[in-house]
Amino acid sequence: MEERCFSWRGPVEMSTEQDFRFEMAKPIHAEVKLTIHTQERFFGPGICELLEKIRETGSIQAASRAMNMSYTKAWKILNRAEKEMGRTLITRVNGGKKGGSSTLTEDGIQAVYNYREMDRKLAAVGNVLLKEYGGSFLPVNRNGTSEAEIG
After folding, report:
1. What is the pLDDT confidence band of residue 128, given thresholds at 50, 70 and 90?
2. Which domain holds residue 75?
């Protein structure tokens, strides 16, 4: 005899002898987003990536293009971060026949490094907390056990 039950993907056919199992028995992970702010956010994953792209390309325009971000938005993000931090993050050389260029200052390099280190450590803490408290997020079968695990 067949019965209908619901999985994460909707109704499925199964025999009564089968255990009820979720189709999604994959490890779960915590994702924590680090954002630094005063009254408004000024440093997070977006500007960090922008600074990394500027370092790779030597250009705000090329970096913003690589991120599918408008050039104007990239400037606004950079200016806000520099204003809030009271530091110059990039050195700008205006265009001309050869075009402009931008390079990260020591403060810019240090900001990227520190942000990535804090983000890495925060992700580790998030996963520790998930292991401690995350059992309630795991799907269970009829026996009250879970095939999924916290990764």
Report:
1. confident
2. 33-137
Give the pLDDT of residue 120.
94
Residue 104: CATH number of its domain: 1.10.10.10
Ranking 19-28, 79-88, 91-100, 129-138 by mean pLDDT, the lowest is: 19-28
Number of folded domains that form the chain: 1
CB 82 within 8 A of CB 47: no
Q: Name the residue with tokens 């401690």.
A: 132
Would the pLDDT of 32 be above 70?
yes
Q: How far are the Cα atoms of 48, 85, 93, 100 from residue 79, in angstroms, in the given order?
A: 13, 10, 15, 17
DSSP assignment of the chain? -EEEEEETTEEEEEETTSPP--S----B-------EESSSEEESHHHHHHHHHHHHHS-HHHHHHHTT--HHHHHHHHHHHHHHHTS--EEEE--SSS--EEEE-HHHHHHHHHHHHHHHHHHHHHHHHHHHHGGGGS---TTS--S--B-
Measured CA to CA, the distance from residue 139 to residue 21 in angstroms comes to 9
